[in-house]
Design a protein that fits this description.
The chain is mainly beta. It folds into two domains: 65 residues, Outer Surface Protein A, domain 3, CATH 3.90.930; 50 residues. Helix content is 13%, strand content 54%. It has a 15-stranded antiparallel β-sheet that branches. The longest helix has 19 residues. The termini are far apart.
Length: 149
């Protein structure tokens, strides 16, 4: 009987200590919450620095609204935004915390609605707005954040 009691005590202790430090597949997870108690963000850490991992943002309804990789405390990689149905509605590329590369917004059917090119956080290059049928509606050229053509 004492063995059973001892085992139940150990099991309960392990269960409670496991709940104090949320983890996902062995990784630590930091969460923030809306005032109503729903999860607002999850930061799934790759290491113990708290500066590297995957940041997931949620809407008040519990759906994921965006995901992005964080490296050394800043966005680094593709940030993807989702609508309430889970469809991709935009993608932004970051390098060391600054927008760099192609940025896209999408129609609900997945076709490109708008595309921009960024260099060090500024629009630089050809930007296009597309009609729903895929034809170009408008095109302009940026240089260092200003329209030149």
């Amino acid at each position: 009987m004492q063995k059973l009691s001892f085992l139940l005590s150990i099991f309960t202790l392990l269960l409670l200590t496991g709940c104090n430090s949320p983890s996902l597949m062995g990784k630590d997870v930091k969460k923030t919450y809306f005032t109503g108690g729903q999860v607002a963000t999850e930061f799934i850490m790759d290491d113990d620095t708290g500066q590297n991992g995957l940041l997931k943002k949620y809407g008040y309804n519990g759906n994921v609204t965006s995901t992005v990789t964080i490296h050394n405390g800043v966005k680094d990689g593709v940030e993807t935004g989702f609508d309430e149905k889970g469809r991709v509605i935009w993608r932004y590329t970051y390098i060391n915390g600054r927008q760099n590369g192609e940025q896209y917004a999408y129609y609900p059917n997945g076709d490109v609605m708008v595309s921009y090119h960024y260099v060090d956080g500024l629009k630089d290059g050809v930007a296009k707005a597309y009609n729903i049928d895929g034809t170009v509606n408008k095109q302009v050229t940026y240089k260092h954040g200003k329209i030149i053509h």
